[in-house]
Design a protein that fits this description.
- The complex is a heterodimer of chains A (222) and B (225).
- Chain A has helices at 2-5, 8-27, 42-69, 72-104, 112-133, 137-162, 177-221.
- With 222 residues, chain A is an all-alpha fold.
- Chain A has one domain.
- In chain A, helix 3 (42-69) crosses helix 6 and helix 4 (72-104) packs antiparallel against helix 7 (177-221).
- Chain B is an all-alpha fold and 225 residues long.
- Chain B has one domain (2-222).
- Chain B is globular, with a radius of gyration of 18 Å.
- Chain B starts with a helix and ends with a helix.
- The chains are: A mainly alpha (222), B mainly alpha (225).
Chain lengths: 222, 225
């Protein structure tokens, strides 16, 4: 399964789906009346946001798995999930800022949803920084696992807290049927790319761990 | 139950006795808190009246940085002379060790707040009389959640021999929702003169519950001599 996800066929399908979605966005999807062509960032924004949530969930599940079994495979999976989560949060944050620039005339406002994206990005960026700050693999995995669990439990709390802030963000977006169809189609390439990236990062993480172990055992034998 | 409470009091009492004899942590934390209040006060144009929003934000910054120092020191004591190894050998549930450390940290943070808050009130002409009970409730509930996360990660980070910046870096993002909520509630209390509602208390209580339960459950897994 992992070899297939990291293989040429999978990535060809994923990139073909992305090309199809881009073509659909350009040729088929109507331009929104109020926002103009900039509204089209929404088709990347929403699938990225939902996939970011699942990437964060993956980090949490893998972290629980590591603390329960102490197997490095779980740690490698959590790392892969966190890297993808940070990239997706960056996409969500940047596309949200572009939207805000055209909707409200400012790149940044402390609106609950933009703040939520920023805090989520910070949470998982720190996860990666923590990992690079600790040398011992076992301690690194333990600290990261505890952080990964608490960070995911923090996600709904971040959402609750930012709702206390004054909001200028639209609570619902009305879409015409062709727009809804385009949005649905965009979920496919984004999800395929996310799954493929997690698989690829997981595999390279496993290889790194195995190489480190091999070098360690050679050093002990020598 | 009584035995658990007795154990917690015994362990927290031990930490507080060490602190009472050395007076290292509290003195350090209070001076740091006062320094933060003064530096930020000067940065926000000295001599002009500071808004309640800025005053509460400055206080939170002082509590956060002072708190991180408390967490490091209380767990650092256990790392000296392999005291943690001896503590782990004792027939005591590790969850109780967590609660005892949490109580110690909370007592120290309340000590910090007892000095830094009046100082900020005087320096910024911050009128607490509008809702003193609301201020203390929000501050206390915020501190419980912050200390819950800080105590957990001080145990994790202290074992890595990477202290200082790393603990702050780990704890601050996790506590951001609590800080955002506390400051937003404070703005409503003092900026908009609204009363503290059951919803506000419930929200902060939910945060505390999530932080306490998740920290208590994971503490056992991560504590190593």
């Amino acid at each position: 399964m992992l070899d297939w996800i990291c293989g040429k066929t999978y990535w060809t399908v994923a990139l073909a789906a992305l090309a199809g979605a881009v073509a659909m966005l350009m040729a088929y999807t109507p331009v929104e009346a109020t926002m103009g062509p900039i509204q089209k960032v929404f088709y990347v924004h929403l699938p990225s946001a939902i996939n970011a949530f699942f990437a964060c969930l993956l980090v949490c599940v893998a972290s629980v798995g590591y603390l329960a079994q102490r197997k490095t495979a779980w740690d490698d999976l959590a790392t892969a999930g966190a890297k993808v989560a940070v990239v997706l949060c960056t996409v969500v944050l940047l596309s949200g800022m572009v939207w805000g620039r055209y909707a409200w005339g400012k790149w940044w406002t402390w609106s609950p949803r933009l703040t939520f994206s920023l805090l989520l990005w910070l949470l998982y960026a720190v996860y990666l920084i923590i990992r690079s700050s600790i040398e011992s693999p076992r301690q690194r995995a333990t600290v990261a696992a505890v952080y990964g669990i608490v960070a995911f439990l923090d996600v709904p709390l971040v959402w609750l807290s930012v709702r206390l802030m004054p909001d200028i963000h639209p609570t619902s977006v009305t879409l015409a049927p062709p727009m809804k169809l385009t949005l649905g189609v965009w979920f496919l390439p984004v999800t395929l790319i996310v799954i493929g990236s997690v698989g690829w990062l997981y595999r390279s993480g496993r290889r790194r761990t195995q190489r480190r172990r091999m070098l360690q055992s050679q050093g002990e034998a020598g | 139950m009584m035995r658990a409470i007795r154990t917690i009091l015994l362990l927290a009492g031990k930490d507080l006795r060490i602190e009472a004899r050395s007076r290292q942590t509290l003195a350090l934390v209070i001076v740091l808190g006062l320094l933060i209040v003064v530096v930020l006060g000067l940065g926000l144009a000295a001599g002009q009246k500071t808004s309640p929003t800025a005053a509460t934000a400055i206080l939170w910054v002082a509590y956060l940085f002072g708190g991180v120092l408390c967490f490091e020191k209380t767990m650092g004591v256990e790392r000296q002379d392999a005291a943690l190894g001896a503590l782990l050998l004792a027939p005591v549930d590790r969850g109780l060790i967590y609660v005892a450390k949490l109580v110690t940290n909370l007592v120290l943070m309340l000590g910090l707040a007892a000095v830094v808050t009046p100082a900020a009130v005087v320096l910024f002409d911050f009128d607490l009389s509008a809702n003193p009970a609301g201020f203390f409730t929000v501050t206390l509930m915020g501190m419980v959640g912050f200390a819950a996360i800080g105590t957990l990660f001080s145990a994790v980070v202290s074992s890595t021999r990477l202290q200082g910046g790393l603990l702050a870096m780990v704890v601050f993002p996790l506590c951001l929702p609590l800080v955002v909520s506390s400051t937003q509630i404070m703005i409503r209390l003092f900026g908009e003169a609204r009363p503290l509602t059951a919803h506000d208390v419930g929200l902060l209580g939910a945060f505390d519950a999530v932080y306490l339960v998740s920290s208590w459950l994971t503490f056992e897994k991560i504590l190593e001599p």
